[in-house]
Amino acid sequence: MRRLELIALPGLPMVAAGDDLAALIEAGLARAGLALVEGDVLVLAQKIVSKAEGRSVALADVQPTPEAEALAARTGKDPRFVQLVLAESQRVVRARPGLLIVQHRLGFVSANAGIDQSNLGQEGHALLLPRDPDGSAAALAARFGCPVVISDSFGRAWRRGTVGVAIGAAGLPALWDLRGRPDLFGRTLQVSISGFADEIAASASLLQGQGAEAQPVVLVRGLAWDAPPNPAAELIRPESEDLFR
Amino acid sequence: MRRLELIALPGLPMVAAGDDLAALIEAGLARAGLALVEGDVLVLAQKIVSKAEGRSVALADVQPTPEAEALAARTGKDPRFVQLVLAESQRVVRARPGLLIVQHRLGFVSANAGIDQSNLGQEGHALLLPRDPDGSAAALAARFGCPVVISDSFGRAWRRGTVGVAIGAAGLPALWDLRGRPDLFGRTLQVSISGFADEIAASASLLQGQGAEAQPVVLVRGLAWDAPPNPAAELIRPESEDLFR
Questions:
Q1: Residue B207 has pLDDT above 50, yes or no
Q2: Which residues in chain A have Cβ-Cβ distances shorter than 8 Å to B200?
Q3: Does residue B212 surpass a pLDDT of 50?
Q4: Neighbours of A43 (CB within 10 A)
Q5: What predicted TM-score, i.e. pTM, was given to this entire model?
Q6: Which residue has the higher pLDDT, A114 or A180?
Q7: Do A235 and B203 touch (CB under 8 A)?
Q8: HEC sequence for B168-218
Q9: Which of A92, B23, B156, B221 has a CA between 20 and 30 Å from the CA of residue B9?
Q10: In Å, how far is B87's CA from the nearest CA of chain A?
Q11: Domains of chain B by start residue, with CATH
């Protein structure tokens, strides 16, 4: 029987700027008696990566531009927070009272450029996404000797509710092209490019939780793939080929 | 440690119209020595539900309308196939050579209204989505005595690659509203409506596969939730509140 096991790493301490995140996680794995084996993938919630990388910003240090002030008035958000969102974004997709959807400089489309004020433990601070999530994943994967996915929760077009997605990946095909393979009956598969790392992030999200029980690190055991690795940047759909909007 | 286990049910026979799908799956569970326990969720690929419900259509029996003929010319698809897509849809979102994105009568936005010609085993046939996937899930959940998710793979706006999504659900909150709960630091969560059934479908998709190894039934063990059940229809985002397009 093919099985997949997901294990939420217990007892990880609060992560602070400058922490050696890989060392913290390795210690957590050792305490839990978990030794990494072939095929294991570690999924890390974006928040702990961002915190370790010192991506927390004090709002008091932010000087909003007039553009940010105007958008803050439209959305009812703190102008300094909106300034951070704009500085991280290439364009505003939609703005409405209470909601600001942007395209992040790295291409992700999400609320507030992925910048978060919850689960932060520092009043008056906001936490930006890692500067280079694929680079962060690659560095962590090299330390662990296993593939790494950095996950976040994004809202979506057409469908309600947030789902886990991959904003960084290393050591596995974030986008897995299965085109040209035969289906069960020898016919070529029709739709066959899998958002593999997004599905991994979504599965981990079932354990990571979004509330008080948040578990930022999930070990996924039992995955199999047979395509070369590519980064989460491959998951960004170029506008020219986006027919789903 | 919080764990989640996913088990692909082995040895399920090819499903045909009129088959008692619940009985086939129960027999498969028994053969595999798997007894359902509290918290178990069964994820069924849409194809086997559609097949059991007799949703396979012979293209030879389809008479395309002039609208379907025109759209077939634009997309390079079989006019009879396009006719089936249109009959299942409320509107065409985008059409281009090789691609036809529509909004299904039930609200899902996907390629070809979820109608598939691969993995079908019947040349010249196409397989429609179940007539009422939430109803199908409810009937199956009643038989199994456990929650059921009916999954499919959809493309997405903004992101490349398909991911597993829930087109039917029963016995669990397909959309799980966590708003108002405290985060780790007692602050109210910001983004906190989870596409729970979509994440379950995405996790199962990691085992279901899309190629020759397709495993249409996945048992998910270890999930926890504390909200009342709602159907997959709740995952459809009303156009008026869709800021992600």
A1: yes
A2: 206
A3: no
A4: 29
A5: 0.94
A6: A114
A7: no
A8: EEECCECCEECCCCECCCCCECCCCEECHHHHHHHHHHHHHCCCCCCCCEE
A9: B156
A10: 20
A11: 1-54+130-237 (3.30.1330.100), 56-128 (3.90.1660.10)
